[in-house]
Amino acid sequence: MSWNRTVTCSACYQTGHNKRSCPRVKERYEEALAKPEEDRDYNDRMRIERYERKKQSAKVRKCSYCDEQGHNRRSCGQLKEHMAHVVKQEAAFRDAFVKHLNKLGLGVGSLVQGTGTSIDERDRTGIVTGIRWRNISIITAHAQLERFLHVQPLRVFGDPRQALMFNISAPAEWPTGPQWRSDQGNNRWQEDYYKCEVLGSVGATVKPPSGWVNDTAAVKHFFQDRHSYQWPKESNGQSDYWSCDWWNIQESS
Questions:
Q1: Which residue from 7, 58, 108, 158 lies 20 to 30 Å from 29 (Cα-Cα)?
Q2: Is 189 in a helix, a strand, or coil?
Q3: 89-121 b/e with 16+ CB inside 10 Å = b?
Q4: How confident is the model at residue 245 (pLDDT cuts 50, 70, 90)?
């Protein structure tokens, strides 16, 4: 690819396509194949070998998710099924999260007090100035809620360089699944270190960005390098290390 982002073929040096789709590669293969075997030189034999090896490789496709032949990752039925399972949990979790924020009266403009163990005594009271919605996903929340609240401490109000990131604790009433990590052993340490409570409600309904509840970007990224062997089999039971049963869909529906 050249500096101006125009694709240049490494086989014929023409622009607009790459070596994989180069028509000249096929032409050279057919020209070499048309020659009597005794008249083929080294280059002819290599062109035939490379082209036919490439054709054979294309026939025997192997999925990088389930490791089975005959399809690729894009068309893998197992992957689609597993992703759909987590997508449902993600949507249910995000819907519950927004409802919880509204129950707390927590949104932009709310007055909050930091109660986490890592928060400086001087910065415990502040105003929520933003919500980092991309930090809110069941992919990470099943282990611990990431910091998602931009808070401006009152003592330095107006100085954006002094903004802090706060958090809340996951409520016990959420219909979490068997693989949602518990508080035992301080597993959800981030919620303890950076949590806050509402002192003054925002007084308005908190609304996430359009399409956020059903957005699947986080789930797609989670499955990007994942493999089917990491998906729990029925024989492994609910205690499987790789289980994605983070949210009880039936109970939340």
A1: 7
A2: helix
A3: bbbbbbebbbebbbebbbbeebbbebebeebee
A4: confident
126 touches 153 (CB < 8 A)? yes
Retrieve residue 220's tokens: 């797609």
Contact between residue 61 and residue 69 where contact means Cβ atoms under 8 Å apart: yes
pLDDT tens digits, residue range 166-189? 999 999 899 998 888 865 556 788
Length of the chain: 253
Q: What is the mean pLDDT of residues 113-121?
A: 84
Share the mean pLDDT of the chain.
Answer: 85
Asked if residues 189 and 146 have their Cβ atoms less than 8 Å apart, the reply is no
DSSP string, 41-94: -HHHHHHHHHHHHHHHHHHS-B-TTT--BSS-GGG-HHHHHHHHHHHHHHHHHH
Q: What is the value of pTM for the model shown?
A: 0.72
C-alpha–C-alpha distance, residues 170 and 177, integer Å: 13
